[in-house]
Model the fold of this input.
Amino acid sequence: MRRTLPIIIILIVAIVVLAVVNLLLGSVGIPLKDVCRILTGDESESEIWQNIIWKSRLPQALTAIVAGAGLAVSGLQMQTVFRNPLAGPSVLGISNGSALGVAFVVLLSGKIGGVALSRLGYLGDAAMSVAAIIGALAVMMLIVWIAQKVKGNVTLLIIGVMIGYLANAIIGVLKFLSPEEDVKAFVVWGLGSFSRVSGDEMILFVVLMCILLPLACLLVKPMNILLLGDRYASNLGLNVKQARMLVIISSGVLVAIVTAYCGPIMFIGLAVPHLARAIFRTSDHRVLMPATALCGAALALVCNLIARMPGFEGALPVNSVTALVGAPVIAAVIFGRRKNEVGE
Done:
């Protein structure tokens, strides 16, 4: 505990600093004193700068914080349930379900209704968000139903992967049958972005995540017991099937909401739990859960900052940035495990 508290304080300070840097830097640089004046409601500042802060950079920073925390916690839950260090939020095909829902809306809307939703601005964005949530929750309900029928985690994992492949196959057919403009709109959505959420949508997204993350923390005790193995957990009085289902539901809802608002953000949920374990050197979820959320928020802010590098017009795809950061972490985990096996 003596070592944990200072690191958590450092992470919180780092998140605050990174959030401020996200407000300062971008294609247009804004001095710190002017940012402070804008945030305190001083209307004498440049109207352009005010719009940049209030309508772009602040929503992006808040979205990155809660999305990063949500994906990281979801990844930790999946790795715990399946006792697999390479399990992530998309392992059960829930992200693919979101993509399938968006694909039906974006790629079929032009053919069925005559007007592509990608051309309808905010209405199209809202329809895409609703479709993503419906697609993700539909897959999650299927997974929960299957989880009640099968006993082994490996079987459930394989079924989830197959559902993901099936969703991708359907998406591929829809792409082939759709016009280029609709395909482009879907591909852009699939690149992921923290900049899609603004205004009332951003407030709703932040509120939802602030409710879901504390609820996920209520599963800390059963997650710690699940680490001991199903047989030992049952001997301790834990209903393993029920606990596993609750963790999967919690993880699935977090992924569904984040994917609906930000698109499929890869690697954060896979890499961050390993970073948290390496930093805090513990497997106790009472420490790991808040630590993973904080690390996820900090890493998402870093990725958002890199995606909006100063001097770069526009923004890089967030998935490209998260892959550049997350892939080395996953490679280190694989080589580390292999080294330990050789050493034994």
Notes: The mean pLDDT is 81. The radius of gyration is 21 Å. The CA atoms of residues 174 and 325 lie 31 Å apart. Residues 47-82 form the longest helix (36 residues).
